[in-house]
Each structure stands twice: as structure tokens, then as C-alpha cells.
């Protein structure tokens, strides 16, 4: 006997639950492969829609993150192909695929780093928090931060690089003593 | 694995897009070829991308508020937003399901962030005004200072007090009154600002818009191009760098005389005398004069500029108070109160902190000026270059800081001394701006006149 088609309400709820478990890593994945924040947002939206359309054929219990990332990579490559006129933003296709497979390879480890990031951010001293807020929250470029902070462009770049390296160190060794920050 | 210093540097520069084209090509080739470099790059790229994709949560993280576990409900807004868009595209029917989850949170999505607020005072805003606040649709009313909003699409809007701005969507604002300057990058082309008189549509530019409290709007293009979609008074047109347009749809009627005001005495012995009391009067003049007599305008405008192109825009204010009900000889203290209002002319960012001077008109015969005939040539006690020293005397100075819009109270010993010499029951003052501007589009300062609905007219307080 053929099984009954899934109840639409249950299907939607199952989809939302699945998406909730992978949403953050999916967003980071897309941002890793797309230079422009607004393009990344658009692509993410398209990816969620494609996932929804194909969700009935998704096999529960298989790797949802890998499934979502495959869909996202297709969208990103299509987007790149349509954006060839903008070489200044170009990430070569082979390069994108190499990065994508490296993300896939490091999978769980990267997720653990994301989990640790919140606590590492909280260990930052005030001036370092400020530069992170300017750079990421306000989406300021280095020159703009230099103006705001009355530092040289080079000094801002050095500080920002250092703060990111400190965070990197911390997310890889989450128990690092705050004093090194 | 220990990454070389050189490679750390390359990765950090790559993340910031600082590699030259040639360096970038070499870097990408090395990443594809070298697994160690690739692993190190991906770790850092992931951190960088986590910060980018989670940027909206950063203030919350730093505030140290306990973050809720990432429960499914936190994600519904963005999911619903996607699904709804997708549903529309794919003609799916999710409406019934959607209703099951209550009001769509996507309607509350923020479209901009308040990224800077220098010395700001707010009033009557229905949006949050703390720095880094996320702003959805709603109204911001800035009464003092300068604030910068950054929209998600990259548009940056700077508002300068006094300004009331209504955010409608990420691409559409309404300037109810005040002034804004906008810097619109490519993704936000088409960004639209409405004023009561105009619709300004950006086509890649930096521009300024003002909306006066009594129906004036001005657009000025600093860079690029905008389209002005007009009203009945303005035809649709495109404006390019350096061009501007001014629309006057003032609702004031030159024939309209406001109700006469009252002289009020308070318990501390102060008597307040507005220009609307008795034989009081107020007005301003402009050197260009093409606006006609300015004795009945709801705004009193004042401007000074040393720039040749602004020569005709010099404006001066005259006030006459009926002091016949007070005894001049007994006065020991005096204050002059002014209520600033957005003029709709010019941009605060193009004028420095501004200094004004108050002159008393010493020749009593000159108190008999007529509001209906007030023009540049008939302004009492004035010469081309300024107040006539033979017929007036400087009594006081006051400052209005850039972006400042609080009420002005001028006090000086000289003011009371001048009033004590009055014998005809009238006291007249000229107000001039002494400081200039850096560009001909600099702000014209405005104050409420006795014709301004609901505002406090210029008022002399004595005791």
C-alpha cells in the first residue's frame, strides 16, 4: 500500500527544525564564498527556497549540512557565472571549489570554533571590541575605521589582523587564559 | 602546523581584499595547491565569515547578556521571509500554515542601524535611539546633534537637528522636516526621500535634502545624479553634481494676521512680552528681495556669508516689542527668547558653529516700520554692510552650535540698559549672523515668528 503523502503542517515543521540546526553554519558557508554581504543574503534566501522545494526528497538521517551546502555551492557557482563581468570580486571557480571542499573536510571542527567564538569575543578588551564592532557590525572599511579612531590606516589594519589572530587562537583553544587577549 | 608570518599576513590581507590582482592570483593558486595554507586560510575565513554573518548579534554578545540557546523559534523570522518569497514564486499555499505561527516577525525586521549619534537629544521618536540600535519602520525626531543611519543596502543617511525622519522601508524615507545628507552606493540606487513638496530618487550620488517646517524643500546634489519627481509646483527633472532646486510651498498667507498675544507676568516677577503683544511686530529681509515683503512670514530667517555666490542671500531679522506696559526705568534684568525652527534652506554641515549678534535700534523714530512693506531697502537702522552704528548699538551675542536646535535665551546687562532708555513704549532689535559658511548651500537659521502656528514667538522677558 502506498504511504500517505506527508501532512503539510508536519512537513513544514520538520523543515523548520532542520533549517534551525544548520542555519548558522549555512550562513557562514555562504559568506565564506561570497564577497558581498548583500549578495550573500540574497543567495541565502534562494538557498532556503531551493531547500524547501526539495525538502520532500531529503532523506531524514542523512547529513543535512552537507545537503544544504551542496545546494548553496550550486547557487554560488551560478551566481559567479552570472557575475563574470565583475572580475574585481572574482573568486576563481577552482579556488571556490577548493575552499568548499576544505570547509566540508573541516566540518565539525569549524562548527566547534563557531560555538567558541561568543566566549572569545567576550574576552576582548574594550578597544578590541570597538574595532570588531566597527569592522563587522557597522561594516566599515579600514579607512573609515582609521578616521573614526584617529589612527593610521596601517595601524588599523595591524590591530584588526592582530585581534582576528587572537580570536583565532582562542577559538582553537577555547580555554586560553584571557590575559593573552 | 605552524603558519609562516608571511602567510598569516597574506591571509589577513586577502580577508580585507587588500591583495593586488597579481598577489591575489598567486594567493589563490597557492591555496589550491598547498593543503596547509588552505586549511589555515579556511579556519580564518570561517572566523571572518562567522563575524560577518552574525554581525547583528555582536552588540548582544559584548553586552554579555545571557544569550538564549539557539531555539528554533529564533530562526523563524528569516525562514518565514524566505519561504513566503519562495511560496509566492512557486505558487505554494502556505497561508494556512503561516497563520498558525502568529504575526509574521519579518514585518518587524530592521532596515537600518543607528551607527553614530554625536551629542544627540531625541524627542517623539518611536524608534530606539541608543547607538547601534536596529531600526525598522518608524519615526526618528532629533532635536539636537547629528546622527548617522546606515541602511542594510549600504545607504548612509546623516540627519542634522532639528529633523524628523520617517523610515518607511530600506529604500524609502520621508523627511517630515529638517535636513539630511545621503551617500548612496550602487546596491541602493533608487533610494527615495520624500519631503512634503518633492520626491528625490537617487541614481548613484551624494545629495542633501531639506524640508522646512513651513513648507520649503531644497535638494542639492554634491556628487552624481538624482531624479526629482515633482508635485504640482515642480516638474520631473534630473539634477547633476552642483545643481540644486528649491521649492516654496509655504502655507503662510501674507494677509493673515495672527491673534494678538498677551503680556504675561509670572510669580518670579518676570514679565514676558511676545512680539504678538500690542504694537509688537517681527520680520526679516533678504538682500535679493525677490521673496517680497517678509513681515508676515512664519519664519524669521537669518544668514551671513562671505561667499560671493551667497551675496544676495544675506538675511537679517528685526523685532519690535511693545514695552508700553512696563516701567522702563525700573527694569534691572532682560532676556530675549527665540524659538529655532528648521528653515528648509541649506545644510547645517556647511556652516560652523554660528555666532549671532543682537543690536538695539537706538533711534526711536525707526521703531515705526511697517510689516507689510518690509524689504531690504526699508529695514530700519541698516546699511549694506550691517547694522548702522549711527542708529543701533550691539547689545549681545549668542551662539548656536552646528546641529544645535534648542531654544535660545539671550541675556546681557546691555539689554536691560538699552530698555531703560526707551521712551516711546517700543523696543526694536536687529539680529544678524556674524559667522559665514563654507559653501553657498550653508544653513539659513530660522526662528519662529509670531505667525508661526503653535510656536513661541520671539519674547522679551523683563523684570
Count of runs of 4 or more consecutive helical residues of chain A: 7
CATH fold call of the largest domain in chain B: Immunoglobulin-like
Shape of chain A: globular
β-strand percent of chain A reads under 5%
Fold-level CATH name of the largest domain in chain A: Rna Polymerase Sigma Factor, Chain: A
Please summarize the sheet with the most strands of chain A: none
Q: Treating each run of at least 4 consecutive H or I residues as one helix, how many helices of chain B?
A: 7
Explain what you see:
Chain A has helices at 8-33, 37-54, 64-82, 93-122, 126-137, 142-149, 153-172. Chain A has 181 residues and is mostly helical. In chain A, helix 4 packs across helix 7 (153-172). Residues 177-181 of chain A have low confidence and may be disordered. Chain B folds into three domains: 5-53, no CATH class; 110-248, Jelly Rolls (Sandwich); 264-462, Sandwich (Immunoglobulin-like), CATH 2.60.40. Chain B has helices at residues 5-15, 21-33, 35-53, 58-63, 72-90, 95-99, 413-420, and strands at 112-122, 134-135, 138-151, 156-169, 172-184, 192-194, 199-211, 216-229, 237-240, 244-248, 264-265, 271-274, 281-286, 299-302, 315-322, 334-338, 354-361, 392-400, 408-411, 426-433, 445-448, 459-462. Chain B starts with a helix and ends with a strand. In chain B, the strands form four sheets. In chain B, strands 1, 2, 3, 4, 5, 6, 7, 8, 9 and 10 form a ten-stranded mixed sheet that branches. Chain B has a five-stranded antiparallel sheet with strand order 11-12-22-16-19. In chain B, 17% of the residues lie in helices and 34% in strands. Mean pLDDT of chain B is 80; it is low at 65-108 and 250-258. The radius of gyration of chain B is 29 Å and the shape is elongated. At the A-B interface, helix 1, helix 2, helix 4, helix 5 and helix 7 of A face helix 1, helix 2, helix 3, helix 4 and helix 5 of B.
Amino acid at each position: 500500500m502506498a504511504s500517505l503523502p506527508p501532512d503539510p503542517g508536519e512537513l513544514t515543521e520538520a523543515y523548520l527544525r532542520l533549517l534551525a540546526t544548520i542555519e548558522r553554519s549555512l550562513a557562514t558557508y555562504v559568506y565564506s564564498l561570497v564577497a558581498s554581504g548583500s549578495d550573500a543574503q540574497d543567495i541565502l534566501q534562494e538557498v532556503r527556497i531551493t531547500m524547501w522545494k526539495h525538502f520532500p526528497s531529503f532523506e531524514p538521517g542523512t547529513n543535512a549540512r552537507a545537503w544544504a551546502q551542496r545546494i548553496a555551492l550550486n547557487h554560488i557557482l551560478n551566481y559567479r557565472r552570472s557575475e563574470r563581468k565583475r572580475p574585481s570580486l572574482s573568486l576563481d571557480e577552482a579556488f571556490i571549489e577548493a575552499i568548499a571542499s576544505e570547509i566540508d573536510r573541516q566540518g565539525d571542527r569549524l562548527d566547534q570554533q563557531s560555538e567558541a567564538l561568543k566566549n572569545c569575543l567576550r574576552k576582548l578588551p574594550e578597544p578590541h571590541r570597538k574595532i570588531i564592532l566597527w569592522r563587522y557590525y557597522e561594516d566599515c572599511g579600514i579607512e573609515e575605521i582609521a578616521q573614526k579612531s584617529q589612527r593610521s590606516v596601517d595601524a588599523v589594519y595591524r590591530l584588526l589582523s592582530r585581534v582576528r589572530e587572537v580570536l583565532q587562537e582562542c577559538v582553537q583553544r577555547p580555554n586560553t587564559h584571557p590575559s593573552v587577549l | 602546523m605552524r603558519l609562516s608570518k608571511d602567510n598569516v599576513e597574506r591571509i589577513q590581507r586577502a580577508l580585507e581584499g587588500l591583495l593586488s590582482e597579481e598577489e591575489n592570483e598567486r594567493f589563490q593558486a597557492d591555496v589550491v595547491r598547498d593543503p596547509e595554507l588552505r586549511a589555515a586560510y579556511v579556519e580564518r575565513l570561517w572566523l571572518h565569515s562567522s563575524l560577518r554573518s552574525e554581525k547583528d548579534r555582536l552588540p548582544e554578545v559584548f553586552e554579555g547578556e545571557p544569550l538564549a540557546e539557539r531555539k528554533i523559534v529564533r530562526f523563524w523570522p528569516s525562514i518565514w521571509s524566505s519561504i513566503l518569497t519562495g511560496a509566492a514564486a512557486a505558487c505554494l499555499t502556505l497561508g494556512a500554515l503561516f497563520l498558525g505561527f502568529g504575526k509574521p516577525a519579518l514585518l518587524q525586521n530592521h532596515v537600518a542601524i543607528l551607527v553614530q549619534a554625536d551629542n544627540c537629544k531625541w524627542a517623539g521618536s518611536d524608534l530606539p535611539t541608543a547607538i547601534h540600535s536596529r531600526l525598522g519602520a518608524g519615526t526618528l525626531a532629533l532635536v539636537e546633534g547629528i546622527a548617522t543611519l546606515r541602511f542594510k543596502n549600504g545607504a548612509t543617511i546623516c540627519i542634522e537637528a532639528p529633523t524628523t525622519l520617517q523610515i518607511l522601508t530600506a529604500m524609502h524615507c520621508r523627511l517630515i522636516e529638517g535636513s539630511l545628507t545621503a551617500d548612496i552606493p550602487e546596491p541602493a540606487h533608487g533610494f527615495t526621500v520624500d519631503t512634503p513638496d518633492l520626491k528625490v530618487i537617487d541614481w548613484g550620488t551624494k545629495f542633501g535634502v531639506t524640508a522646512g517646517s513651513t513648507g520649503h524643500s531644497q535638494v542639492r546634489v554634491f556628487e552624481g545624479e538624482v531624479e526629482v519627481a515633482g508635485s504640482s509646483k515642480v516638474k520631473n527633472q534630473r539634477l547633476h553634481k552642483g545643481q540644486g532646486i528649491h521649492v516654496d510651498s509655504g502655507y503662510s498667507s501674507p494677509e493673515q494676521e495672527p491673534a494678538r498675544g498677551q503680556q504675561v507676568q509670572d510669580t518670579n516677577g518676570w514679565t514676558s512680552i511676545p512680539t504678538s503683544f500690542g504694537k509688537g511686530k517681527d520680520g526679516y529681509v533678504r538682500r535679493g528681495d525677490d521673496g517680497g515683503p517678509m513681515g508676515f512670514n512664519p519664519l524669521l530667517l537669518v544668514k551671513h556669508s562671505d561667499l560671493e555666490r551667497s551675496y544676495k542671500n544675506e538675511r537679517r531679522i528685526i523685532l519690535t516689542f511693545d514695552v508700553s506696559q512696563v516701567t522702563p526705568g525700573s527694569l534691572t534684568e532682560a532676556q530675549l527668547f527665540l524659538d529655532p525652527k528648521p528653515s528648509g534652506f541649506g545644510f547645517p554641515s556647511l556652516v560652523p558653529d554660528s555666532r549671532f549678534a543682537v543690536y538695539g535700534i537706538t533711534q526711536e523714530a525707526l521703531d515705526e516700520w511697517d510689516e507689510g512693506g518690509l524689504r531690504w531697502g526699508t529695514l530700519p537702522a541698516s546699511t549694506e554692510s550691517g547694522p548702522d552704528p549711527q542708529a543701533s548699538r550691539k547689545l549681545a551675542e549668542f551662539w548656536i552650535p552646528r546641529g544645535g536646535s534648542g531654544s535660545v535665551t539671550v541675556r546681557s546687562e546691555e539689554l536691560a540698559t538699552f530698555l531703560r532708555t526707551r521712551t516711546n513704549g517700543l523696543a526694536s532689535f536687529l539680529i544678524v549672523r556674524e559667522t559665514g559658511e563654507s559653501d553657498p548651500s550653508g544653513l539659513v537659521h530660522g526662528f519662529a515668528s509670531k505667525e508661526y502656528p503653535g510656536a513661541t514667538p520671539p519674547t522679551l522677558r523683563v523684570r
